[in-house]
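Researcher: Please translate sequence to structure tokens.
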Amino acid sequence: MVKHNNVVPNIHCHKKYCLSSRGPLKVRLSLDQATKKKSRRLARAAKAAKIAPRPLQLLRPAVHCPTQRYSSKVRLGKGFTLEELKAAGLTARYAQTVGIAVDHRRTNKSAESLALNVARLQEYKTKLIVFPKKRLSKVKNGDSTAAECKAATQFDGTILPLAGPSGEIVMADVPKQEVSAFTTMRLAMKETKVDGYRASVANRKEK
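Model: Translation complete:
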């Protein structure tokens, strides 16, 4: 019998990973993990070489996470709304050709988020290098110069990443209070504690 207050052994070691009366049991193994890792890396490199000098990732908007618990957190969303693209002077069809993600389902709920993403689009337009459709054709309106096209390199990171919140607390931003809430609560708790004792002393004096 098992000593001490342990869990009652109830394990079932009856699976046979070989030929049995029920036939071979199908056990999924991951013996090709290292090979798959290498093939994925080569596929990423082949894709990067194929689309070069186009960047590997698309420009994403800054959105707030859903639900009240996480609504204060800002992350990268799926794509820009049609209203944001229109405010930045772009069309949805043209934006998809220059590396901007478009999401026709998302809508803007506030003017602040609209202005923030329009500013992201405007900043991206200043850094954008647009190649002509044909390499030997003349430079058209909106295309970059030949020198800029020649100096262009492929960008492989996150385009315009969001700035993380600073962990430092600036005391100048904290409003000063003349009455401390902690002191008020502590005094109220003490008063409640000694209230019964004071009442009993007063009753003794009256008698």
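Researcher: Any highlights?
Model: The beta strands are 62-64, 74-76.
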